[in-house]
Design goal:
This protein has about 450 residues and is an alpha/beta fold. It has 15 helices and 21 strands. Among the domains are: about 140 residues, Alpha-D-Glucose-1,6-Bisphosphate, Chain A, domain 3 (3-Layer(aba) Sandwich), CATH 3.40.120; about 80 residues, Alpha-D-Glucose-1,6-Bisphosphate, subunit A, domain 3 (Alpha-D-Glucose-1,6-Bisphosphate, Chain A, domain 3); about 80 residues, Alpha-D-phosphohexomutase, C-terminal domain (TATA-Binding Protein).
Length: about 450
């Protein structure tokens, strides 16, 4: 491998094992991270992939060789690294994870003090440059590893459960699909504490044990092809709802009692409503892809809606600037002010349990009216030879009729009764399209087909 580290992406590190990512690169990044941030104490966690323990060890060695005290939290979710970084007042945190990427990949998610994202234009690039140069300052004293697994897990579980009133929970049955990723052991700790406080909630576990071979496929519940196991289990046991996690469980996905997948934008609206009931007039941050349902709920509840660009670094930055209580993306990332402004896959399902308990309403009923009022296409991806030119043709066709144009993230055009958002991928020739309307699913389907027809030559 050459000294140009192509594993550095827009916000984190992801690479193919043995091609552009390995233990040596992790070691170099560890040293670079420590030197760039002048770090003295760094949290290190890892997911359930086969290579993650070795990569975490090499990363930790690099940090220690720069004089850092490494707080090891072992097998954990990315959100556990986030919370440990804040809880233990560390200078930064790193999770070894490839989340839902293919089995031959791995990577690093990194934050600085107070679990703040690295600035991708400065701090991340500085770490990349130092790691590529591979010449580091000599530390006067080597660092050491402190095993924080048990302490960190207790602190995390306590924090996650603080978001709900356990005494309000009513009898409920929930399917939990951990996808053989990192979620299982952490979920068990949450359930252990929960069951000591209340016997109301019962769980049906599936694909629960971490397994680096991923016998049931890479855990990416956003893909429709992966919905069937959770849906079938919900129906077979008669559960009130199901929740499925990705590999490092910073995202969670919901299935209602009918086995239906609940699109992420309606969960964002649901959680916005929950927090506005808890904190009147609060600020809620949302992404620009599908907005009308969320904005309508926030307005009706007297809250303040603020839009941010898609991506965790942007959402977190805007949340901090506005002291927003909650932020949500339709991709199933949910962010919480009282969780160091970070995303969590465990907090959302707990909030849904509490909401269903307080209202006595099923999950399908909680979102049915919202889906009818603001139907959407969901995100549809198109592989196109010339993405920018293809987007330009769509914009040229519709822009003269648009009532508003928003170019903050891709381009969004709004009309009287429908809108769409188009974004191109930073890493592949893919255009991402979302269409929504006011109460007219047939209009959504028609406009989606219209836009596709403009690309007929590109798709043939």
């Amino acid at each position: 491998m050459n000294d140009t580290l192509s594993c550095f992406k827009a916000y984190d590190v992801r690479g193919e094992l043995g091609v552009n990512f390995d233990g040596d690169i992790c070691y170099r990044i560890g040293r670079a991270f420590a030197q760039s941030l002048q770090a003295k104490r760094v949290v290190v966690g890892r997911d359930a992939r086969k290579t993650s323990p070795e990569l975490a060890q090499r990363l930790a060695q690099g940090l220690m060789d720069q004089g850092v005290e490494v707080l090891g939290i072992g097998l954990s979710g990315t959100e556990e690294m986030y919370w440990a970084t804040t809880e233990f007042d560390a200078c930064g945190g790193i999770e070894v994870t490839a989340s839902h990427n293919p089995i031959n990949y791995n990577g690093l998610k990194m934050v600085k003090s107070q679990s703040r994202p690295l600035d991708p234009a400065t701090e991340l690039l500085d770490i990349k440059a130092l790691a590529e140069k591979n010449v580091f300052e000599i530390s006067a004293q080597l660092g050491h590893l402190t095993d924080m697994q048990a302490v960190a897990k207790r602190a995390y579980v306590t924090k996650v459960l603080s978001f709900v009133d356990l005494s309000a929970l009513r009898p409920m049955s929930i399917v939990v699909n951990s996808g053989n990723g990192a979620a299982g052991p952490s979920f068990d700790e949450i359930e252990r504490y929960l069951s000591a406080q209340t016997s109301a909630v019962k769980f049906h576990r599936m694909f629960h044990e971490p397994d680096s071979s991923f016998p049931n496929g890479i855990p990416n519940p956003l893909l429709k092809k992966n919905h069937a196991p959770t849906r079938d289990m919900v129906l077979s046991v008669g559960a009130d709802f199901g929740v499925a996690f990705d590999g490092d469980f910073d995202r969670c996905f919901f299935f209602d009692e009918l086995g239906q997948f609940v699109p992420g934008e309606y969960i964002v609206g649901l959680l916005a409503s929950v927090f506005l009931d808890k904190e009147a007039g609060a600020t809620i941050v949302h992404d620009p892809r599908v907005t009308w349902n969320t904005q309508d709920i926030i307005a009706a509840k007297g809250g303040v809606a603020v839009q941010a660009k898609t991506g965790h670094a942007f959402i977190k930055q805007v949340m901090r600037a506005h002291d927003a209580v909650y932020g949500g993306e339709m991709s199933a990332h949910h962010y919480f002010r009282d969780f160091a402004f970070c995303d969590s896959g465990m907090v959302p399902w707990l909030l849904v349990v509490e909401l269903m308990s307080r209202t006595g309403t099923s999950l399908s009923e909680l979102v049915r009216a919202r889906k009818a009022a603001f139907p959407s296409s969901g995100e549809v991806n198109f592989t196109l030879a010339e993405p920018k030119a293809a987007m330009a043709r769509v914009v040229a066709h519709y822009r003269p009729q648009a009532l508003s144009v928003d170019e903050a993230d891709g381009i969004s055009l709004s009309f009287g009764d429908w809108r769409f958002n188009l974004r191109s991928s930073n890493t592949e020739p893919v255009v991402r399209l979302n269409v929504e309307s006011r109460g007219d699913p047939a209009l959504v389907a028609r406009k989606l087909a219209e836009i596709v027809s403009i690309w007929s030559d590109d798709l043939s």
